[in-house]
Design a protein that fits this description.
InterPro entries: DUF1622. This is DUF1622 domain-containing protein. Pfam families: DUF1622 (PF07784). Keywords: Membrane, Transmembrane, Transmembrane helix. This protein is mainly alpha-helical. The chain has one domain. The protein has 4 helices and no strands. Helix 1 runs antiparallel to helix 2 and helix 2 packs antiparallel against helix 3. 11% of the residues are buried.
Length: 128
């Protein structure tokens, strides 16, 4: 039994920096996406209409934030290995994942302009 708990403790110690690194990477992705989308927006303003540039800017920002949120959710899931499991910690993790998943869903719907379960029907209609 002690060997199993020693393994779990060792795994938790190994996963803690992985989770922190993934969190940091998620934040870096969001910050970089804001910078790159803003630069692209400035370039697009010279060659297209304001509305087209703005729509592209929002979509690019949304994609970057969406990717960063997915990385942050992954980090939260990995972090559960490092934290002692209590009802409070599991509930908090569930709430964080739920909020981030809702944000991801909302951003994806905003970017695509259609809810995921209607995408196929819309794509088929546009292909005709």
């Amino acid at each position: 039994m002690e060997q199993g708990s020693g393994f779990a403790a060792g795994l938790a110690q190994m996963m803690e920096p992985v989770a922190k690194g993934l969190e940091l990477f998620g934040v870096v992705v969001i910050v970089l996406s804001v910078v790159l989308a803003t630069v692209r927006f400035a370039i697009d303003l010279r060659g297209t209409t304001r509305k087209t540039a703005y729509d592209s800017y929002r979509a690019n920002l949304g994609r970057g934030i969406l990717l960063g949120l997915e990385l942050l959710v992954g980090a939260d899931i990995i972090a559960t290995v490092t934290a002692p499991l209590t009802w409070e910690s599991v509930g908090l993790l569930g709430l964080i994942v739920l909020i981030r998943t809702f944000l991801s869903f909302s951003l994806e719907t905003e970017i695509e302009g259609v809810v995921p379960w209607r995408r196929r029907a819309v794509g088929e209609r546009e292909a005709r």
